[in-house]
Amino acid sequence: MTRTSPDIRVAVSTVIFTLRPSPEGATLALPLVRRTRDPFEGLWALPGGWFDETEGLDAAASRTLAETTALAPSYLEQLYAFGDVDRSPTRVVSIVYWALLRQDQVDEQRAAHEADGTAPENVQWFAAEDLPRLAFDHNTIVDYALWRLRNKVGYARIAHGLLPDEFTLADLREVHESILGRKLDPANFRRQIEASGTLIPTERFRTGSHRPARLYRYDGAIELAARGPIPTPTDTDTTDRNEER
Amino acid sequence: MTRTSPDIRVAVSTVIFTLRPSPEGATLALPLVRRTRDPFEGLWALPGGWFDETEGLDAAASRTLAETTALAPSYLEQLYAFGDVDRSPTRVVSIVYWALLRQDQVDEQRAAHEADGTAPENVQWFAAEDLPRLAFDHNTIVDYALWRLRNKVGYARIAHGLLPDEFTLADLREVHESILGRKLDPANFRRQIEASGTLIPTERFRTGSHRPARLYRYDGAIELAARGPIPTPTDTDTTDRNEER
DNA sequence: ACAAAAGTGTTTGACATACACCCATGT
DNA sequence: ACATGGGTGTATGTCAAACACTTTTGT
After folding, report:
1. Of A19, A37, A76, A198, which residue has the fewest beta carbons closer than 10 angstroms?
2. Which domain of life is it from (chains A, B) (predicted)?
3. Structural domains of chain A in order of their starting residue, each with its CATH number
4. How far apart are CA B205 and CA B217, in angstroms?
5. Is the pLDDT of residue A225 over 70?
6. Where are the alpha helices (DSSP H) in chain A?
7. Residue of A nearest to B91 (CA)
């Protein structure tokens, strides 16, 4: 208790999920950063950085996320603190967050980069299920984040965090199917979502090659997930505690 | 990414739960330590300390727990990392764990202390629902740990972590009732537990003032709680990741 | 007209709740 | 014998899964 704090540095990393169009509907993807210095130089790693002394944990996660993607997350939650002795040559404790980004915002960002040629160097998006060997223990961290996402989508209304403001039930179902990796019954999915009371139907419809589908939007008055008794979201209003259930 | 780590210290704290006998069955209790130095001197705080440079997060939590109670936890899980800028006069990030202690072990420990007069100074057990004002943000932390415990007891088999090796279903039900704060139907409780398949019936019975009740013990081959795809419990075999559900 | 997706209705089974009832022991 | 908690049986409601069916559009 009375010993002074040894030389341990604190880092923040974030597992950032979004959906990419793919042959079979959509695929979870996340951005990685190629390391340009010694520990694990050349390998891909989760975006992150050191803490600024004047910012809280959530703020640091948001900042490093913005530095990588130039986007604000639609969902942000602390995942876990990793601090094994051997996870890095020097002693580093990483506070890891996970986040969701809206599909359309990522697309806009990507289009802008292609237009003005300011493609971010050393940042690349990978399919979440097909990652290379990552630096540090980051493969373990991504696996854990994926597990948490799949778990949480079953009981918390977070899937719309990957969609634009207005979406059809088929869109939302496709998100669930992409995350869970299996098909869902459209009829039962509709009833579950409607019963949850978290979606507001609009008067607009999406017209496609078949019968038009009603567009819905998320009811912002309802919290994304059940949280602890003392919410205390420090900065973003989309920040949440972990474990919900 | 390239800035160097500022002066942030990393601490570990643990919310340690056990059950105390009380008029209405049993009550959740936790040990607190009176602060003897400046930030919040005189107030009660969660047991904890700084990290040893050579130990992992889980090990540090176990160590500080042992320093406070001289006991090994029957369950240990990381709760959350707290790092608001204003939570301490100096910048401290606390990795907080929560733990369960077996009732009988705590009793033994207490009896030993009373016998040889080595009552630990500055450590005192408090009822979890009736705490004084604590140092730092520790009231918030305890509330969150209580929420997580109540949540988790509903879907994970952790309640036996508060009981001796052999116990009756009434004992186990009392634990659930104490944690949840409401009475449970004995018949339905029995069926739920039996259906979970986590308890092994013994041939022993507890004889009381009425019909003897069968003693059960926990099936150690079954994990306490569903965990992520990559378990990696670093030291204790009772260590678990947070949030399962 | 027909294909295909949107949306509705119905049946089934799993499971939690409520509660009536029987069992076995100490006093 | 009887009070008390241990333990079983049974009816009810909720909800998710499965799937047949109707509706509405584009071609």
Report:
1. A37
2. Bacteria
3. 1-152 (3.90.79.10), 157-234 (1.10.10.10)
4. 12
5. no
6. 57-69, 103-116, 138-152, 169-180, 186-196
7. A53
